[in-house]
Automatic annotation (TrEMBL), chain A:
This is Alpha-E domain-containing protein. It holds the Pfam family Alpha-E. PANTHER family: BLR5612 PROTEIN, SLL1039 PROTEIN. The lineage of its organism: Bacteria, Pseudomonadati, Pseudomonadota, Gammaproteobacteria, Alteromonadales. Residues 1-306 form the DUF403 domain. It comes from Alteromonas aquimaris.
UniProtKB/TrEMBL annotation, chain B:
This is Circularly permuted type 2 ATP-grasp protein. It holds the Pfam family CP_ATPgrasp_2. PANTHER family: BLR5612 PROTEIN, SLL1039 PROTEIN. Gene3D superfamilies: 3.30.1490.270, 3.40.50.11290. InterPro entries: ATP-dep_Glu-Cys_Ligase-2, CP_ATPgrasp_2, UCP005522. Residues 81-457 form the Circularly permuted ATP-grasp type domain.
Amino acid sequence: MLSRVANHIYWLARYLERAENTARLIQVNTHLLLDLPRDVTLGWEPIVDMLSFRETFYEHYDTADEKSVIKFVVTDQLNPGSIINCLANAKENARIIREIIPSEAWELINNLYATAKDDTQSVLTRRHRFECLDKIVAGNQTITGLMGGTMNRDVGYSFLRLGRHLERADMTTRIIDVRSASLLPDVSGNISAFENIQWMSVLKSLTAYQMYRQEMRLRISRADILEFLLKRDIFPRSICHSIKQLGKCAGELPKSHVLKEKVKEVSKALANLDTKDLKQDKLHAVIDDIQAALIKIHNVINETYF
Amino acid sequence: MAIRWGNYSPTPFYDELIRVRNKPRDAARDLCEYLKHLSDSEINEFKTASTTAIQVMGITFTVYSEEEGSIDRAWPFDIIPRIIPKHEWDQIEQGLKQRVKALNMFINDLYNEQNVLKDKVLPESILEHSKNYLPECQGIKPPHGIWAHICGSDLVRDENGTVYVLEDNLRVPSGVSYMLENRHVMKRVFPDMFDKYNILPVDDYPSQLYDMLSQMSPRTIHQPEIVVLTPGIYNSAYFEHAYLAQQMGAELVVGSDLEVDDDDIVYMRTVEGLARVDVIYRRIDDAFLDPEAFKEDSMLGVPGLMRAWKAGNVALVNAPGAGVADDKVVYAFVPDLIRYYLDEEPLIPNVPTYKCVNKEERDYVIENIEKMVVKPANESGGYGMLIGPHSTKAERQKFIRLIRRDPRNYVAQPMLLLSTAPTLIDTKVEPRHLDLRPFILSGKQTNVTMGGLTRVAMRKGSTVVNSSQGGGSKDTWIVDMEDK
């Protein structure tokens, strides 16, 4: 496989996954907002921080209110990480490698971008937001399913999964981080009804609620949820699962010695993590570490193959 | 009822489907009958279905405009097909094979013995001023003596129904992917008609192309490495490059994916390291192919490619220098070339062509310029042309100056009354002018596409069919009427 093509496949997967997870991230926050008592004011600014776009945001907006942040994160052409730009980049990458991916996948990607572009204005009102963001999530799920069901299991497919799982791991850490950032006062000592609701919304935004219940057979609890989302391979959006998949992909690729090493390091760190022990500050630090490790893995992929 | 054939009058032109008012040609009878019974809303439904299919399939071409830069546009597609009976097509196919065979013999001769000049069939001055003649190619004998492996010849029909070759495209002819995709669109939106007619399929083109490309491999190995070399996503035909690579399962590469080492072998950069390339179906013009040999500042090409080709280590399709034969002045000599190389009469005539390089012909052209179509020798895409009857006085004056300054560079043809076919304009049918571009593949055997790409001038009265200038397309049906 051409290096350039592998690079495009990898980024195609990353942009699609990023669009989906950004949509999920906004869903968590919107859900939280509806469930919380009126006197707890929920900020939107942390969303901007979480996506690491603080500077760009304040170049174009004065205040981080709901409308501005949603606009910035979903529809703004000036934000390189906005959902619409992710989908546009996904489409451009797909267009360049359209002879590699199944033509039906190209049609879906092309279409997902076109519908999202038509839809994005309605995302500003809460009433239409769920539907609009759900379409983006469902769109990527469909594309993923189609590629899984029709693509040869060759190195191209390995690069696709490599991009997808690296991005998914990164974005899942960011979604968990919604809870540990300055969104809400630290209430971890006292499991209130609201705290339950908040964690439930995190699970739901990752389509993890049912799977959590089936696997953990427990009431909602912070430590168990963190255990489930960080350490359980059984759930396909958990950090552990994504990292394991990275290891598998590395095993399918040539010249992957260094890559395998790096993946192993993160796996080990995850395995040694005690989720009972994770207070807010520490959780945030752990998430920072995982994100830093993922960046390193990306750099190795970049140097080895592209 | 929306389509009233009684209101459709093709005169004074030859119409592909309608003989005279209310009288369809034999092959078009069932189609016209079917269309007659469609309601406005059904017609709109079909049009929407075809537009959606085109959008979803991402069939686009890129146009350049100064205001907007490069933009992707869906190519206008008309759902009423053009129909040609198979017995008529068989004649055309023979004529195209004859023509391309002679053209390949001509190019091979020109770069080797040059008998055609010695025997004074082609004046030497034509060659001296040819922009597409590459001295670098002298003495090269590519496999099977083939230089123009893929040829797209444009056919037109005049008011009497005679088919002419308007020009041959021997460099990087494009459009075949639209021919293939148009058929897919028609099958999606018009499945009923495929029961009524025995429509000959077009979709084996990619396999034939693949077979021809493999035959050109310098290494006799089971699966030679074949790549399609594209200038990149901003090229107007990029959709086609990607499409053909996909259909053949070949790698689509840009110049920077390839390198030529000191061993004069072409390699591509892969995730596993360097891999040898055997055949390059290049969709880049000669001048940009190799910055070592031609334009030094070409970012699209591969340094050393010509070295590798001359050493016989890689096949280039079409071969560099093949464009010498699609010069519009050389075109005027093609009937003579067919007689010279094959000792046969041309089966498909040329459009009568005045060569401005000859004084008498030049004077005639200048005197009658308002009746002529004047073409520069080496432009494509309909650029730099003068269409006399539609021109202003200032434009005609400008062309007279251009012809006088560089007569070798211009030919002129009488304004042909191009044939028409019924085309849907809103929900009514109106005649629109069209041409036909079949594609001819030359390898160990020669294959002609079943029909080709029909291009339609969508503007009323216009004869400019190029996609870059407001043209559209139709599906082309070669129908076998024998078993009816």
